[in-house]
Amino acid sequence: MRILLIEDDNKTAERVARGFAESGHVCDILTDGEDGLFHALRESYDVLVVDRMLPGMDGLSLVRSLRAAGRKTPVLFLTSVGGIDDRVEGLEAGGDDYLVKPFAFSELLARVNALARRPPPVSEQTVLQVVDLRMDLIRRRVIRGGTEIELQPREFTLLEVLMRNEGRVVTRTMLLERVWDFHFDPKTSVVETHVSRLRAKIDRPFGTPLLHTVRNVGYSLHAPR
């Protein structure tokens, strides 16, 4: 197996990685949540082992972002936070299993092996396209009409959500949850500001608008009607 371990405690990471190597598996180690998410999206792994408390981006947010991007790689949370509510929160965030520190490596290995034996998920869509707007989720590239468009990470995620919902209205509340992980209204114009910036990049230089505002409801990405 190829395993990604995202753990900021060096001793734990070294112990786990050594155990996986001795069991014949390849284990990559990252210590930062944002780096972990980037590699989990960019590379192909059989299982992810993720600590909940990470610098850069916490483990829950990492897994939520991974699932929002459509990735179904099995995830095992490895953490010292072990209350019932914490376990439920981890599973609801998209985790597949939960192991509390301190732990026996033999149990961790058995759980990882069990996750890897699950039937493979349906092939994930790696390219999204609406008319002449194309998004490559693996290479993190956006092209319209043969022209590559440079997007900031948040703009990329915003566009991805809109493209995955082609022709459907995506409300402001849905965007706050899926792009910013806000489960409340921050009473700011963050959505409107980012939509305006995105529109300036993907629509205005090309003449034909794809990103449409549905007044008092939200936004929709679709071909001109």
Describe the structure.
The chain has 225 residues and is an alpha/beta fold. It has eight helices and twelve strands. Strands 2-1-3-4-5 form a five-stranded parallel beta sheet, with helices on both faces. Helix 2 packs parallel to helix 3 and helix 6 crosses helix 8. The longest helix has 13 residues. The model has no long low-confidence stretch (mean pLDDT 90).
Short précis:
With 225 residues, the chain is α/β, with parallel strands linked by helices.
Mean pLDDT: 90
DSSP strand count: 12
What would you call the shape? Answer: elongated
* Helix count, DSSP H or I runs of 4 or more residues: 8
Radius of gyration: 20 Å
**How is the main sheet built?**
5 strands, parallel
Distance between the termini: 48 Å
Tell me roughly what share of residues is in helical segments: 25-40%
Strand content: 15-25%
Helix/strand class: alpha/beta
Which strand order spans the largest sheet, edge to edge or round the barrel?
Answer: 2-1-3-4-5
Uncertain regions spanning at least 5 consecutive residues: none
Task: Supply the key terms.
alpha/beta; 8 helices; 12 strands; 5-stranded parallel sheet
